[in-house]
Every structure is written in C-alpha cells, then in structure tokens.
Amino acid sequence: MAHDLKRKRPLHPLLPAKRVHRSPQKEDVSEHSGSERSDSPSRSSSPEPNRPQDSSHSHHAVRPPTGEELRNIKDATELYCSSSFKLQIDALLPRVTPKYQSASALESFLLALHKLLAAIPSHPPQHPLHAARSFADRAVAVPYVRPAPSEDTNWKVAFEPPAEIILAGSWATKTAVKAIDSIPHQVDVAVSMPSSLFQEKDYLNGRVFQKRAFYLAVIASAIANAKDLPCDQFYHSPSGDPRSGKEFDKLNVQICIEPFLADSPIPLQRLSPARSNVRTGSHDESSSEEPTPIYNTAFMLMTTPKAHLLSIHSLKQDVPGFGDALTLLRIWANQRGYGPGKRMCVRGFEKRGMWWASLLAMLVRGEEPRPGMVKASSKRKPLGKGLSSYQLFKASLDFLARHNFANDPVFVKSKDGHRFPPDAYSSHDATFVDSTSSVNLLAGVPLSSLDMLKNDAETTLAVLNQVNDPFDAVFLKDHRDAFSRFDIVLQLDMSSAEMRQPSAHLVADHGSVYNALMASMMSTLRRALGDRAKAVAVLHPTSAERPLTQALPVSPSVIHVGLILDPEHAFRLVDHGPSAEEQETAVAKAFRELWGEKAELRRFKDGRIVESVVWEVKNADERAHIPTLIAVHILKRHFGISSECIRTWQAEFDGLVKAPESIKSLYDARGGVSTGFKAALAAFDGLVKSIKALDEELPLSVLNASPICAALRHTEVFVPVAIPLKAREGLPPAASYLPTMDFVLEFEKSGRWPDDLQAIQKIKLAFFERLAASLAASVKGIHAAVAVQDSPNVRPIEDQAALDIITPDGWAFRAHIWHDREETLLSRVINDQPHVPKALRRHTETAHEVQAALAARSTYLRRFVHAPRHHRAVAALAHQLSAFSGTVRLTKRWFAAHWLLRAHVAEEAVELLCAHVFLRHGMPAGEGASVPGVPASKERGFAAVLAFLKDWDWTQGLSVALDYGEGEAAPAGAKVAGKLAAWALSTSFDPDGHAWTARGPSAVVARRVTALARASWDSLRALEAGEGTVKDLFRHPTAHYDAVIELDRTVAPRYYQNVDADTTVWAPRGKYANAPSRNDGGGGGPMPGFDPIAMYCDALTHAYDAAALVFYDAVGGDRVGIVWQPKLKAPLPFRALGGFSGKPVDKTEGKTKESQKALVVLNEQSCLIEMRRLGTGLVV
Amino acid sequence: MGSAKPKPPQKPKAVKHAAASASTSAASSPASPPTTVAGFTVLPVLYAPAVIHYLYAHAHSAPKHKSSKGKEREELPEGRTLFLVNVPPDATERELTVLFKSAGTVEKVVFSTGPEAPVPEDEDEDDDEKMSDEEDGEGESADSDEGMDSDDAPRPSKKRKADGTEAPKVTPLPAPALRHVRRTGHTAFVVFLDASSLARALTPPPKPPAWPTDAAAPRGLEHFTALYRAARPPLDVVRAHADSWVAAFEHAQAAARQGGKYRMGEAVVDEDGFTLVTRGGAYGKTLGGGVGVASKRFVAGVASDGDGDGKRGRRKKEKKEKEAFYAFQIHEKKRKDIIDLKRKFEEDKEKIEKLKQSRKFKPY
Question: How far apart are CA A658 and CA A660, in angstroms?
Fold first, then answer.
C-alpha cells in the first residue's frame, strides 16, 4: 500500500509533488535547518532510482550510503574545509540570521509606519532657521550639519510626503546578520524625498544635507506625535558623519528611516569624485578646485538604496551560495571589529554592509575593465556561480589578503560601464566602486584600516590552512581584544587634539573637525611608521544613537591606536630621507615637515649625506619602544597630543622583568658588573674553552659542553648579571642571589668506566675533583667547588654530583657529567630482559630498586637527553622570533607570580606553551620571513599566551611544532607520569609529552592555571578599558589558601626580584655598611645557586607531600601558600601509616564500641607550627 | 628500619590494659582527647601554647611469622621497644630521647624512613612508598644491588662504610649533625635501656610535655645553609672519598669474581646440561661469564624495540599480501572506504549535534 501511495504522489499536481522530492532529504533538513537555503535546486531534484527503500536505513552506518548521501558527504568534504566544518557552518548560520518568519509584529509596525509617513502633511518652504524654531517647543532638534544655516541663507526648506517608501538594506534582501554585542537587527526604510523640494544648485555646500535634515526632523516629530506607534526615536550618524542622519525606532529591531533621492533636478555629473562641491567661503577659487571626494560620495549614497537593493537581489538569485557566504563574511568581520560594536572597533567600517556584499559581487561578476590597465584584470578571473558559501568566503579573504588597496582601484562589473572616468577616483585613498558605478564604497575608509583588514585576512587564511579544526578560531572567537591583537597599543585622549595646520577644506570634505583630524592622523601615522608596521588601526566604539533633541553627534574622546609590527623593520634605528642634494625638493620638505626637529642631515659611513631620523636607545628593551616613540612624536608634533594624553603599557611590562633601579645602582656602585644574555653566553663560551684546554690534565678529553639553562637561551625572567666575587661582599642579603647556569659535559667514550651505577656517580666525583683542581690552577681567580649532592633526598644511583664554577668575572656555572652507559644500566634494572625467563636472570630486582631506578632514569633523561635538545630548539626559536624570548620571560614571570613556576610548572613547560603560541600558524619559512598572526612584541605574545591558556582544554594535550632538527624521538622514559602529569606537551622529540610535565602540574594545579588565566584575562580587558595597571595581572590573590606563611624578606636572597619589591628591605641602614650580612653562612665563600626559600619549600613539599600542596613564588617570593588535601578535612579512620599528622576526634561517650573505628582529623595547627619550625630564621 | 613494622591489629593485650588504666588517670585533662585510638596510646606534646601535637604509641611486637629475622630482634628487642606513630617530620634522635627522659633512658631511636647514621642499614632506600607487602622479605637483600652475584659471595664490604674488614677503608664525606626532614606522620621505634621504661612511656603524663629542641642540629635558614655547605666539601676530601670508594669497589668486585660460581670466559651450564647463552656487556664479558654471542646489531635491535620482546624475527617473516589484486578486493576496498566516509560523517554530525546542545554555536 505504501508503495502505491508513494508512486501516486508525484503524479499529484499540487503540493505533494514537492514534498516527495524533498523526502530523501527530510532528515538532512531537519538536522541542520540552515542548509535548507543553500540547497541548490539541482541537488534536490535529481532523481534517485532506489529511493523508496532508503528512508529506513540511513541510520545504519554499515550499509553503504546512497548516491544522494554520498554526494552530500563529498560536497561537504570537498566544497568545504572538512565535513565537520560544513556541519558547523550549518549549525552556526541559523543562530545569526533573524527569524524572518516570526516577524509579523514588525510587519504590522512597518505597515503603520508606512501609513503614517504617507500621511504627513506638507510644510511650505521656509527659511531653515525659522523652520527649526517651529520644532523647538516640541523637543525635536533639526540635525542641520555644519556649517549651520545662518540668517542670510537664501534657500528654503520644505516638506512633501515621500514619493516612495521602500524597505531597503539587508532586511529586505534577507541577508541580515546579527550584530555583535547584542546590537539589535536593523531594518532600513528608505524614504524618497520628492524632487520638487530640490533645486539644481543644491549639490553645493551641503544644501541637500540641510534639506534632508529638515525632512528627517519633520518625520521624527510626526512619529513622536503618533500615538499608535510605540517606539523610541534617536538620531544616528554612522562614523560620526553628521550628513547622513538617520532615525531609529526601537522595537526588538531598529528601524532606520533613511531619506533618499530617487530623481532630482540635481545633475549627477556634478558629483563626479573629482569635482569640488564645497566652497570654503573666504578662500580663493584655486583652493576650491580641490576635489571633495567624501562629500560627493555621501551625496551619491543618497541616490543608491534602490539600485543596491536590486543588485543584491539579483546576486542572490544567480549565486546560490551568496547569502551564506555574505553571512559568514560578516560574522568574521564582526568578530574582528569591522562593523558596529560597543567595544573598540576598527574605524571606518560602520554601515558598510553594501561593501561586504559588493566584495562578493566583484568576485563573482568580475571587474569592469579600465582603460589604463593592460590585462591587469585578467589576473583575477570571476569565480563560478556554483561555488559553495565556504569557497566564496575563502575567496574573499584571499582577495582581502592579497589586494593592494592603496595602488589598485577596483571597479565592480557594471551594466553600463563606468559612470565617471576611473581616473576621477585618484583623490580617494582606496577605491572600490560598486556595481552601479556610482559610489566608491570605500570612501572614507582609512588605508590603515584596510591594512588591518588585510592582516586579519592573512591570519585567518593561515589558520584555515594550518590548524586542524579552524572553525572556532575563525568564526566563534571574539578577536577584538587589543592586547592579543596588536603588538603595541596606545590609548589616546583626543580631547586636547588639534591639527597643527587645520585645513578648512579637509573639514568641509569630512563634515566635521573630528573626522578630518582622524583622517589626517591616520594617514600621517601610516606614513611615519612606513614599513615598520604592517597595520596601524584606530579603534573606538562605534557611534551611538543620540536623542532627538541633540542635533549633532558626539565623537569618542578616548581612542586606541593599535600597531601590528613587521619585526624585520620595526626596530630599525635610523630612517633615511632624501639626500642632501635634494634639499629644496618637495620630498625633502615633506620629510622635514613630517619629522620636525627630529629630522637632521647626517653623514653615513658609506659617504652619503642624507636627511635622517635617528632613534637613540640604550638597550634591547628600549629598542622595542622605537615604534611607540615614533607614534608619540608624530602625535605630539602634528596633533598636539602631549605625552600625558597617551598611555602605553610597554614600560609597565618591561618593569616586570627588570630589577628595580636601586638594585641597578647598587650593582653599578661596585664596578666590574656585566649584564645581558649575550655576555652570559660569551662567558659560557670562554669557560668551555678553558675546560677544553685542560685536555692534558684530564683522563678523558671533553667532547661537548651543552648548556641547559634558561639564562643561556634568552628565556630567563631576569637578565643575567655577573658581579665579580670581590665586589659581591657586603651585598644586602635580599639581593645576594647568585644564579647558576647549568650545562652538561660529555667526555669521550671509554671502556674504563665501571659497570655499576653507584660507582659511576663516584667516578664523576673524581672527574669533578680533577677538573676543579686543574681549572683553579690554569685560570686565575676562578672558583670551583664540587657539589656532592644536590638535594638531601637523592638516591645513590641517581646523577647527583655537580661542579660549581664561578668565573673571575662573577658568572656562576654548574656542570654535570653525562655518561650514556647509565641509561642502559638503569633500563636493565627497570626491565631486566623480559624475554629471559625469570629463573635465568642474574639477579632479581626488588620493587624498591625498580622504583629508585625509575626515578634515577627520569632524572637522567630529563637532564641529559631532553634538556640539551630542548635548549637548542628554544635557543634557535628565540633567535628566529624576536618577540619570543620576551614573551617567555613575561609568561614565566606570570607563572612565578602566581606561585606555580618551578614547584608545579617547569620552566621548560612554559617555554613549550609559548612556543606553541608562536608556531601554531606554521613555522616561518626562513630567516626574516614571518607568518601572519605571530606576535612581534612581548606584550602581545604574553596576552596571546594568556588567551590560549584560558581556553586550553588541557585534557586533550597539546602538540607543539618546535623544531628539534632531524633525529629520532627520545626513548619514552616517563611511563611513570602518573597523577602529577595533567599536561601533555608533545613534540617531535618527545611524543609522550611528559618530559617536562611529569612532575606537575597535577590536575588540581592545571585547573588553577586555567582559572588564573581567566582572571588575568579579565584584568587585561579592564586594562584595555583604562582601568588598573599591568601589575594587577601579576598580583596573586591569597584568599583561597588554607594558610599563608610569611617569610622574612631580609634573608630571602631573591627578594629584590619580587613583583612588588619593597626597596627599603635592601636599602643601607644600620650603623655599619660593611657589617657582615647574616646569611653568608659564616663567611665560607660564595654560595652560587643558594636559595634557602626554594630549599625550604622543597623540604615542605617533601615532608607534606600527602597532606598539603605547597605554593610559592620562585622568583623573589616572600610568602608560602598551603592548601590542605581536601580529603583530609573530614575525619578519617586512624592508620599507623596514614601519612599525615592527625589529632584524635572526640567521640560521644557510650558509643565507643569496637564497631566504630577510631577517627583522626588533620591537625592543621600543629602542622603549621612544624612548618614554621622547619623554616626557623626564614619565617617571620 | 621500616621492615619491622608491626601490624596494628596484633597489639598485645598488655598494652590495652596499660592504655585502659591510662585513660582513667588522664580523664581529667582539660582538652580531654581520647586517650587511646585503635589501641594506640595518645601522647600529646605541647608545641606552642594551645597547640598540641599528638604522638601515638604502643609497645613493639615483632611479627610472629618472621622468626628468621634474628638480627632484627636484636635491634628492636621486644619488651623494651616503643613503636611511635606521627613523629614530627623534623624530629631527631636526641629530641625523642629528651622527650622520653622521664620514662627512662633511651638506648637508641630507629626511624622507619630515611637514612640515619646510627642504623647500620643506612644505604637502604629512603623511599616513601608505604611498605608494600614484600617489605619484610627484601630488607636485607636490598643492599646488594650492585650488579654482581650475591648468592654465596661474601657481602660486599664496600657497602659497609664503617665496617670494612679486609677491604680498603672508604673515607667518608663529612656529615655534620643535620636534621633529616622526613614525611609527615612517619613512624619510629624508641628502644629503652630498661624494660620498665616502656610502661612508663605508655602512660600519658598529666600535662603534655613541651617538644624539646635539639640545639646541636640547626633548623631553618641555618639548617639549609649548613646543608648547602656540607654538600660542598673541600676538594681533597672529595678526592679521598672518591679514590677510596673506587678502591673498595674494585676490591669487592675482585672478591666477588673469585667467590663467584662462574669464572670469566667459562660457559654457564646448569644441572640439565644446558649452556646459558648471554649477551656480552658493552665493556667486555659481564661478570658471571657465560657465552657471549650478542652482536652490536642485536644490542641495538633490543634497544630500539623498547621492550626487546624478541618479536623481531617474527616481524620480518610477515610477508606483504597484495591488497588490490583481485577485482573483488578492489571492490570491497572501495565499498569500505565509502562506508568509512559515511561513518565519519555521521560521527561528525553527532559531534556537532552535541556541541549544538551545549550552545556552542553562538558566536556572540
């Protein structure tokens, strides 16, 4: 029966036929309703022979899919990024498009509005000021533009009911996209002003705009008086340009009433972009010949709403993927601040809906050929109409990323060829003429904003090509956070800004002083920074609607300027100008005009004498400030924005990884101090040389010395400092820390090493002794001591001995000896030949021995296998990416400041995290090549790391593309990773990813990292809004610790590195400046690497492993935080080996029977006393 | 020595009596904590005013089934040994001696974990792991982990830094009287000189005694400084220690070789007449002898196999079967690919559906 029915249905002439066609897709449609619109007619109408049987089996994955399904799947995988990407797009689209079906309330409102507008009585022509006065008592101001009409104006304003009322814009074409920051949807109502209101000369001096303002005011007052239209009304001027006034009605949507010109007596050829239509009064004729492109465009835009509506509609008809592609593009743009928004948005992209649509139109329809360009358009062939939405989206990104807007105007293919000659657009910054060939849709968009757009498109393309599941990063994340987006962020207070050479013409063209100033500021900044910056973006919140009583818009007074640097050029010290011979040319004048007193004639080494600007810096930190210096200089010189009105955060960030000034002067007073990573590396090379020179004295010669220390790869939080031993005497204890730099010595192979683990350690001692003795003999002033044990709980088979060396300059090193036989011996203990039967093994290991060997092997692998490799890879990266080392230093500082570094999160793990943030968009191809989206300043790098940490799902692990060079992966050594290894940072060398995370963070701590990153991210956002300081990100909240032990700052040798270091702690005080300090340890010589705070915390961690978590700041901390294990908070049954200090719990008498076990609870008080006792002398 | 841990359920009745009597006498104490917990006598110790640390004690009784451990019985004689639980992590022998002075003279203190000079088994693992079941059996043999046969060889003397008889003496590294920080809640045995002291020790004093301080062993900053200094002895001491240790090691190795069952270069033949074929060490034949056959390649192969589970030979034999030889194979493969494709698609769909549920697709 059913079979019969099915056969009959297609024969039915009415609706059912359609339904049957759809039936195989029903499931598809219901599951992702968004795809409904994108279904091409051809797809749904294709016949399928075996359809009747299909409906049931699509759930069974075992059966092969039908041709229909197969095509869907293939489409998804081939036309989209991946099949899941397609599904994600389908899921996303319905969430951002308005529900047109349920808009009946809106429709009835629009009907009522239509009726009202058509019925407004006409006003006779009046003098504009008189007309305005008639509204005054009714609380509607006429939004006349500047220059406002005066008493002696000789034209009149009037009102006639609109000739035509149409629904325009994206709502009418069903291409509306939800805006960011819960801004409601906009419905544009275009109201045609009758031609009888205008005269031929109205194109001059903004008369049309004045008339339109009056027209708008009449409508506004009519709506305000209408009782049956419940709504609020506002004026709105996009981009703060008062000429394009609009009205808002607030329902659940905003309705913009936009008067336009259908036909008018005004000759449109007068509005060619090359014409000047504003007479700036007193000026003579020559200056008024300068074109007024922005003005003309604003005028022309009044004539286009209908034409645009039609062109979009026809595009939608022709190109099935158009609607979705436009939606995707606009979501992408909204997420990056190219559109309306309440947070900081990129300037120039407000109300540019038509531009995004025309962009797609250009891609599909092609370009209008220009006479001047020879075959140039052939390089961009129009795309096919059948492309999927994703392909169109990607194509437009590709266009944005490649196109050079500054030099290359674009003309969308139009029906009737060019309306104005293409050359007429030369006065525009960027040109993108729409398909009606009447307006430049990019007029008024600053080139620097387009640079930003280009940069964002490049980054997104890199993400689409590189990242595994790019959907989130492309569409779902808000990318407007200035700190993770721009290398340098400046906050400007514009209230005092003033152009140095105000130009009446520019003001007239732009419509307001503010806009003219902004336009001039952006182009000047862009010119001054040149190739140093890839993009200079001005950000401010988009213009807000204003009440009807306010005629003119207000401009935001606080704006942000964001710079994206090109690391190759950004930190150049000298800018060259024209040479001395061209002193009098226009170029030279312009150069001097731009730079002012900074420009000077200089003679260079190669004999040239050129105008140049030199930025003087003292160190690498200051060098990173050059782009900021340039921006500040330009803003001050040309726009009168003094440095008090400019806020940057760079110096604050710098201060976090720099010793306080008083410490510096303390060091400087002692003389002979050398600082810097380069100096440390040089000292290391010198030491290696002198060790290699000892070949005669040592039984085996040294093959290699590999550094394994952050200070030797530019990633130590503080720049290494060396103070000669003599000068160290009398340093205040709070600044007496002498950090050591570890390295690994590898001797040539020899058969004479003993085949026993413990014996190997003793032989190492002998080697160290010999090395120390001969070094002391050969290098004058060197200090060398053998450290026989580096921690009290070390096992006898573990690598433990080291050699402390202090060079005559004061650099401290610590050498370890690598003997590769150890690993074999340890592996033998751990897993003694499993293929040999147990009975035949030479000896059997106890569980304890295996435990010890496992621990020893993990030390061995970490120290001798992973650390040198890691060091080389990170050092190479730091060399390649200039911002990397600064980012690592800030991030380490952040981890330390939140009491996690060293004890919970290894330094190397932090380096890997940072490397991931820098490498996730792919490796730089070569020297100097840069990948889009890679931070070029440490501040941005740090913000990007925070942004990554706050969203990182660490249960999934992380694969870091750090380049370890060729070679096979390391042996898996961390099988005992266990509960402490919550993070897995795998690299090509360490596929397990536990080399640096085996000892933490645990899941508890990993969750804390996420929470802390979120909190810091919020502080960063507050910072963007101008609240708080950078240090807020590094101040650790201590409320959630069960106990906090305060330490004595005066004896903590690293205290001077504290985030909030109190300088009085080390200030000279007391009677005798040269009195012996307390922790000289009885004057037994220097103590390289001695950090009692770290030792104390290690002891606490060791002793209270099962009872508490210990947190402290490894970089100059002065407190220790204790968190008791939560499971110990409740009483537990007493056990002799409970592993914690318990106190008996009082039980109610009478119930104490054998059945009830004796309970104990953690004795927090006594534990705290014990902890303080362990830290006698350290604890306050 | 952790191996001698008695199991709480085996507590002797005498202790119970003592505890019971103690509980009646101490009932009037102000804090009134229970005086016994699971058979252990609670001994409060005053840390600071109003802060009390609790020790738990009962008389030590050696496990019955370990009758062979005569030596242990000597060390921890039943009847005058007190088993203490929850010893403060930084406690030293002297501090415990002083604490129990009122009960009687303490002969020695044996901490259950960590190396401690007075205990002969100082080389034992100071591992924290809470005493696995085989703990008792392995206590002794744990000493001889040195990669040589210990079956009937004389105990290698190098392990005994103090009691080397025929071997060269090892010059020890200087060891100042430093505290050893142990795990919290660890245990210790207190051996009294006199058996009568035990009962006195198990009677809680009317007022909790204050925790004594061992002035000889510094704490805190001084401790860490001393620790740091002690780890960096003068060069000549290091040299003397290393040289003498290696000498003792070589001596022990030579002794082991002489006393061992196997001689260098001789085949190892078991009772059934089979010869044990072993791999030669990288540095000559391994100690026990055997017939060395292993080549470098074998060694490398075992190492690269990770576990070296001997599958190498078999793996080589797995010959490759042609995958798309017959038409049906090609057909099957295509079909399978398509099905896989669909399955993956369905999986993706489900995943997205799940994400949809979690309202993930709201971009803003």
Answer: 6
Say yes or no for a CB contact (<8 Å) between A845 and B145: yes
CA distance A399 to A360: 10
Compute the distance between CA of residue A662 and CA of residue A1061 in angstroms, rounded to an integer.
11
Interchain contact, B90 vs A83, CB within 8 Å: no
CA Rg value for chain B: 32
Q: Which residues of B touch A1179 (CB under 8 A)?
A: 220
Residues of B in contact with A1134 (CB under 8 A): 37-38, 40, 56
Q: Do A1141 and B185 touch (CB under 8 A)?
A: yes
pLDDT digits (tens, 9 = 90+) for B35-68: 777 778 888 888 888 888 988 888 887 665 554 4
Token pair 């592996």 in the structure block, residue? A827
Most confident of A31-45, A228-242, A829-843, B252-266: B252-266
Does position A1170 have pLDDT exceeding 50, yes or no?
yes
Strands (E), A462-608: 488-493, 533-540, 546-547, 558-565, 574-579, 600-603
CA distance A274 to chain B (A): 42
Per-residue 3-state assignment (H helix, E strand, C coil) for A654-719: HHHCCCCHHHHHHHHHHCCCEECHHHHHHHHHHHHHHHHCCCCCCCCCEEEEEECCHHHHCCCCCC
Best CA proximity match to B106, nearest among B191, B45, B180: B191
Task: Give A754's pLDDT tier (boundaries 50, 70, 90).
Answer: confident
- The alpha-carbon gap from A181 to the nearest alpha carbon of chain B, in Å, equals 7
Contact call for B342 and A65, based on CB within 8 A: yes
Which residues, 6 or more positions from B279, have their beta carbon under 8 angstroms from its beta carbon? B286, B292, B293, B294, B298, B299
Q: Is A756 an 8 Å CB contact of chain B?
A: yes
Q: Which positions 1041-1070 of A are in contact with B (Cβ < 8 Å)? A: 1051
Least CB-CB distance to B363: which of A92, A792, A1106?
A92
B278 class by beta-carbon count within 10 Å (0-12 exposed, 13-18 middle, 19+ buried): buried
> For residue A333, what are its two tokens?
């743009």
Does the beta-carbon distance from A1136 to B8 stay under 8 Å?
Answer: yes
What is the reported pLDDT for A1010? 94
Q: Chain A contacts of B127, Cβ < 8 Å?
A: 848, 851-852
Q: Which of B38, B183, B341 sits opposite A1139 (nearest CB)?
A: B183
Between A356-370, A401-415, A1073-1087, the lowest mean confidence (pLDDT) is in: A1073-1087
Taking the model in full, what pTM does it have? 0.83
| A328-358 pLDDT tens trace | 999 999 999 888 888 888 888 877 888 899 9
Contact present, A704 and A746 (Cβ < 8 Å): yes
Closest Cα to residue A897, out of A1032, A1091, A1001?
A1032
Q: Count Cβ atoms below 10 Å from residue B360 Cβ, excluding itself.
A: 17
Cα distance between residue B236 and residue A786, in whole Å:
10
Distance CA A243, CA A494 (A): 22
User: What mean pLDDT, rounded, does chain B reach?
Assistant: 67
Q: Are B171 and A1094 in contact (CB under 8 A)?
A: no
CB atoms within 10 A of CB A15: 9
Q: Starting at the earlier edge strand, list the strands of the sheet with A164-168.
A: A164-168, A186-193, A254-261, A246-250, A233-236, A546-547
- Are the Cβ atoms of A972 and B306 closer than 8 angstroms? yes
**A1169: phi then psi, degrees, rounded to nearest 5:** -60, -45
Which pLDDT band holds residue B150 (cuts at 50, 70, 90)? very low
Residue B212: partners with Cβ closer than 8 Å, 6 or more residues away: B94, B95, B98, B99
> CA–CA distance from B54 to each of A451, A952, A1140, B208 (Å)?
71, 45, 11, 10
Q: How far is A492 from chain B (nearest CA, A)?
A: 28
